[in-house]
Amino acid sequence: MEINRREFVAVPAAALAGAMVAGASEAPWQRRIRRIGQLNMTEHDPVALDIEAWADYWASLKVDAVLVSVTGILAFYQTKVPFHRKGRFLGNRDFFGDCCAAAKKRGLHVIARMSPDLNWADALEAHPEWFQRDAEGKEIALGEDPRLFRTCMFTTYMTDYMPAIMREVNSLYDVDGLFTNAWPPLGHLPVCHCAQCRRLPASGTIDYWEKFNARTVYLWKLYDSIAKEKRAANFYFANLGGGIRSSANLVQLGELSEWFQCDNQGRGGAGLPMWGCTLQGRVCRAVQQGKMATNVTGAWSTGPIRWRNIAKSRAEARMWMNETVASGMVPYLHIIGGETGMGEDRRALEPAREFFNWTAKHDSHFINKRSIANLGVVMGQRTQLFYRPPHGVSMPDYMNGLYYALLEGRFLFDFVHEEKLAPEELNKYAALVLPNTALLSDAQCGQLRAYVAAGGSLLATFETSLYDERNQPRRDFALADVFGIHKAGAVIGTNGNAYSARIERRHAILDGLAGTATNIIAGAEYRVPVDPVAAPILTVVPGFVAYPPELAYPYPSHTNEPAIVVRETGKSRLVYFPGDVERTMWRAGHTDLSRLLRNAVRWVSGGQQPVTVEGDGVTELFAWETQAGFAVHVLNYTNPAMHRGLIRKFYPIGAQKVTMHLPTGRRVTRVELLRAAADVPFQVDGGTITFVIPRVVDYEVAALHSA
Ligand SMILES: [Zn+2]
Asked: What's the pTM?
């Protein structure tokens, strides 16, 4: 394996195969979809929804498919499956059939949507074995409506009841695929004490996770085989998402899943960063090998206080859709309920109509063959699920802190799953970042060691490699030899004043810090003490009392404990931070840590990026090789609602200068700004193209037409 510091480089054969399928016209339809729509049907809709208006709306958005509710909780057709209760307003109607016919008349594919998670008291009485139980063996009622009870995925509910509905729908309707909502669970593992689950390892353990994954794969394959009983081209898929904290093993699902459906509908109110959608897109890219991924935008008001029937801010909805396509996913609009024909709040309808029609004009620029980035960020799914961080620490903070620093540094990067560290996955990256990737197997550490031996560079923080893949602590870092570090004691937290870092000598990682008016910079909240190293760059000044100020002074003020360990081996550059610097940056907002992280990432990646975008503003950048050439995406996050939705309005940023190294033999004929609807002049010099995007309101896509 040869590691390249500069794009363009060898494309993994598997990635290329997936990409070619995604773009090719002979590919199955579900790999060619560009837009998806769903009005999630309520019990009242059989007498409220205007089916013709519904179908016309989706056709006007140029969607490729609609999801229509079969359900499992309430039937939307004249079912004969026992315990599939018909809704109060269904009467004798074939509501599903009417919707299906109206969609088909307009050339739309129809996916039958089911929900296997809940059923009623009559089912509980007849089939007590179908339902989840608490520790006392009692059924678990739904908090919002105690007439409904939670079903268990390990029972025959999933292998008898759901298949009966699926086969009934197949027999009655011209459906193109089957979909389940609410299963598998997102971001958490079930806790159930039913007779089946009592035989399983305790929930929350890795042993349980393995059973959970095996059951998920088994049911997925079962449902897919039922979908194919209707037509060989039909398929099954499920509601997924959960970002880096997905509950099911993402690599297994990535292999199974034709269509990765991200139930990631938006933010609102709570302190969540604007990049919640792009982060999901990066996860999909890491596990899907270019197959279909859709991200749901809830037209309704998402967040801790919800209004299912009221539209969210138009700007927020638009940014979520921007992020969807920028990160390589397909946009999917989700509306709930068709009161008075098509919902009472018609503000939900127009933003997506405008956005979807805009993308429809430019599809060939949104069909991506591969991501252009030479920096990989390991996403550590096992660490997200099983690592126990210090008391009170929130797991997403590690990735959010790193993510923010990468945006501030305007880096292009991909996510890399820890189970996909083989040479053919890594050889496009000049450097990998491991943000507190605590759980790594010996084999994975061996792959990282081989990557470094081949010239790759690494940056890791805090407890990276201190646990094996089963969450068993190690006495020392498994990557100790790679970084030249040894653990010297248990994790040290902060009581009062956090530790600081003393500048010992100049280094590129300290640019803008060393040589200024200070000898010391911010440390972090937690650190792993490590053995002294030769010629340290930063050393730890231990924390001390913050109050009273009489005692707020460093003592001792100088130690030989490293606050960073930096080494170069051959072509590889290696950086280890003993502190949880990325997480501390997220919590404290300290600019020293942001600068330190940006400098360190720049240094390990050799200072070379395949694409740079220079200008003011906080942006997120993507660059893709597309069906039509190349595309550089600029998302403008410069907004007071960047860390807490909903966005009220956009704050435009000025000129952004783009520089991109073109692959050998590729010629660009035109640079078109898809949002501004204007071409811009460009220069090509020695395989490097430069041009300027004059202004970005919320989003711009510079489409490089290339033969
Ligand atoms: Zn159970």
From this structure: 0.96
